[in-house]
Amino acid sequence: MLYNHENLPNPFQLIMEQLDSLERKIDKLMHEKETGKAVAAEDELLTVQNATAFLRISPSTLYQLTSRHEIPFMKRGKRLYFNKEELLQWVEEGRNTPLTEMEKQAKVQSYLRPLKRRKLR
How far apart are CA 78 and CA 47, in angstroms? Predict the structure, then answer.
């Protein structure tokens, strides 16, 4: 097609149309990712075998934790199920924060004080 000054396409309009198309595609992908991830996290139930592999503990340890209700679990009949997100949260709740050097020294001193008093008697 031959272009003249009357039917010359507007390059800015073409760029805007392409940007709009890209924006719609990105929005669609983001929505799919968010909804797909939410569904996957909610539906990811682990059996005892999967949970022990995921947590890297023995089945007997897992059964002990469930009998003492120290770990989140669901029971349907005689079967135990574990939600992967809840297990991750449970592990993270047990995370220890590293002690600073001063906190370490204070902790050592608190252990040593009673020992020093006993020796003086």
Answer: 12
**In contact, 55 and 87? CB cutoff 8 Å:** yes
pTM for the predicted model, two decimal places = 0.48
- Give, rounded to a whole angstrom, the gap between the first and last alpha carbons of the chain: 107
Q: Which residue type, as a one-letter code, is found at position 52?
A: T
3-state DSSP call for residue 34? helix
Q: Which residues, other chains included, contact 51 with Cβ-Cβ below 8 Å and sequence gap of 6+? A: 62, 82, 87
Chain centroid to CA 97: 18
Q: 42-78: per-residue pLDDT in tens? A: 568 999 999 999 999 999 999 999 999 999 999 999 9
**Domain range 44-95, CATH architecture:** Orthogonal Bundle (1.10)
- Tokens 């990105």 correspond to 26
| Closest among 93, 53, 97, 41 to 72, alpha carbons compared | 93
Q: Angle, nearest 10°, between helix axes 48-55 and 59-67? A: 100
Q: Which of 78, 51, 74 is nearest to 62 (CA)?
A: 51
